[in-house]
Amino acid sequence: MPYRAHMMVCAGTGCVANRSLEVRDALQSEIEKRGLGEQVQVVTTGCNGFCGVGPLLVVQPEGIFYQQLTPKQLPLLVEEHFVKGRPVPKLMYQPPEAAAPVPKMGDIPFFGRQRLIALRNRGLIDPEKIGDYIARDGYAALVKVLTEMTPDEVIEEIKSAGLRGRGGAGFITGVKWEKVRQAEETPKYIICNGDEGDPGAFMDRSIFESDPHSVLEGMLIGAYAMGARQGVVYIRNEYPLAVQRIHIAIEQAREHGLLGEEILGKDFSFDVSVTRGAGAFVCGEETALIASVEGRLGDPRSRPPYPAQEGLLGKPTCINNVETWANVSPIILQGAKWYSEIGTGNSKGTKVFSLVGKINNTGLVEVPMGITLRELIYDIGGGIPDGKKFKAVQTGGPSGGCIPAGLMDVPLLYEDRGGKRTADDFLDLPIDFESLTGVGSMMGSGGLVVMDEDTCMVDVSRYFLAFTQDESCGACTPCREGTQLMLDILTKITEGRGTHDDIRALEEIAWVVKQTSLCGLGKTAPNPVLTTLRYFRDEYISHIDKRKCPARVCRELNTYRIDPVICVEKGHGCGVCKRECPEDAIFGEKKTAHRVDDNLCRKCGVCVDVCHFNAVIVE
Amino acid sequence: MPKLSLEDLARMREEARRTTLLREGAGRVKITVHMGTCGIAAGARQVMDAVLGEVEQRGLVDVLVVSSGCAGLCSREPMATVEVTGEAPVKYVELNPQKVKEVFATHVVGGAIAEPYALALGSERTL
């Protein structure tokens, strides 16, 4: 018998960490207990995208969206919704400023504003079942290229669609494919770059988890177009669920003859192997990644020759990002014209962003190119929690920069005036707001870390430098020494020992590292420093001149004071702070005002955390 | 498993599509069985089973079956609403498995309202 409802339980990493598998099992047993097993199907899906409110359940066909579920709530949910037919409002999502919960997924602004291409199957299929993928036009694009298109026509289609690499640099995908096709050496290889290393980014992981076959189909089409017989999926070992699902997908595709010899009875053979990366950030760089696949140390080398000429094992190789591959099939099926009508100018299609940090709706979103930060952060992201002020957004991870709130209405594009635009180009623009507004801000790989007024930009810049310094492979001097020097200076400033000469030195070193490093890691590592110096210079100055951290993040620069009135009137001199202070730096008797001795205080901040009456003031 | 040919893949797609169509919330006909306490007491479960059975037996792929609460006319339960896309919804009353069969033949497949069991056209206005 057909089912009358499908219960789509999210099993992305975020929801699994919130125990969605327990929710699924409890749901299944409750459904069976109620004798509904033949009417209602429980389906495990990949990441739904709204990770901030997991575990999630979407009931289809109505599209009712339940969130933050626990196994305990399920008897109620099953009885009300499936036995009595009454959806349960108290388990639904209520947007921060809305008066009532919103029952339907499509009506929640977080989902309603998105346009899904790379994530077209998320939440709609079980990623471990090839049949689910096939039902949603899976492998239909492969059939189309094998039966109706020549390899050159495929490349032309991808080129005229205007698809660009989604890993960050934004190189035109069709051109890369053409170069590999034209290379004379054989065999040729194609690689899927799933070495997603930016802190706060999880686009690639989510695609592997929710729709692994979309990546395989993209690679198959690429292999047909470029004449490759062997492909490699490079994926971080710290993504266990993604690794597991891509393995299952490859096994199923092989069983069905969609990978292997003479695919679908045609004269086309292709297979894929998986290489797991150990988690070095530099291995996301294509030459380092190739070295890692070959079993060597993940060190980058200088280019040219580019991988399209000499890549894996010295042979022509095409490396594309996970999201790029996932975009291939829809372009083939719907056509280049359809795709190129989405987005703007030279930035076509959609982009997946992971929206994290100080934002209400944490999660994974896919939106058309050209959207502004304001739409992303306020309309989709639901704004900043606790009524705080939006300060900046960090895009593109450690290689990207911080875009200040003032640039919120700038559309997100790869470029402005033709030609490739990367993080580097953004930094070369004039500093004034008008010219930046005119040219758009930069994209990066898709990590968006939102920061509010409580974030110290000097500290952020120090955090990212600490990351790149740690991840620098040490092969070239500018990156190895430069990142260390910059980190030392930033640490000095956050500890209140900085001088104006330090800012000058910081800028000079940043430019040298940028200009002279061997690979992308070093070339982009100074970006967080340079953008924060540009837009938030006053914060640096405050750390140096006033020895104050405006966001009160840098503890060394804070002083702690107890408001005597609040302490006595509200707290009756309770003495919790005195008891908890590890340095015994707080003095005072019960029922009288307490005070902090500056000479003894080590600025740990425990007093702030333990005071029930908010009597401790940080300055 | 033997290797797929082009035809196998197309067949596999059709079969799989039947089960997954429901998730997209799109279909030609939507049948709502009203399963409030009153409906269930009057036999809505059997009606639901009959509706699902008909969909299965006739191999329909474009019919969505959902449940909802009491429709407000408890005395004439079990009730179901049949909504063909683009047409006004029709409410059927005092259903049983036999009547469900007729509603399927006349309305869901035939396209004409099964008048003997129909209560009224349309739904109440909300808000």
Write the layout of secondary structure elements.
The complex is a heterodimer of chains A (619) and B (127).
Chain A: E1 5-10, H1 13-17, H2 20-33, E2 40-45, E3 57-60, E4 64-66, H3 74-83, H4 109-112, H5 130-135, H6 140-148, H7 151-161, H8 173-182, E5 189-194, H9 203-210, H10 212-226, E6 230-236, H11 240-255, E7 271-277, H12 286-293, E8 317-321, H13 322-326, H14 328-334, H15 336-340, E9 343-344, E10 347-348, E11 350-357, E12 363-368, H16 373-380, E13 390-395, E14 401-404, H17 423-428, H18 433-439, E15 447-452, H19 457-471, H20 477-494, H21 500-516, H22 520-524, H23 527-535, H24 537-546, E16 560-562, H25 564-569, H26 576-580, E17 586-587, E18 595-596, H27 606-610, E19 616-618
Parallel strand pairs in A: 1-2, 5-6, 5-8, 6-7, 11-15
Antiparallel strand pairs in A: 1-3, 3-4, 9-10, 11-12, 13-14, 13-15, 16-19, 17-18
Helix pairs in contact in A: 6-10, 6-14, 7-8, 7-10, 9-10, 9-11, 19-20, 19-23, 20-21, 21-23
Chain B: H1 6-20, E1 29-34, H2 37-42, H3 44-58, E2 63-68, E3 80-84, E4 90-92, H4 97-109, E5 118-121
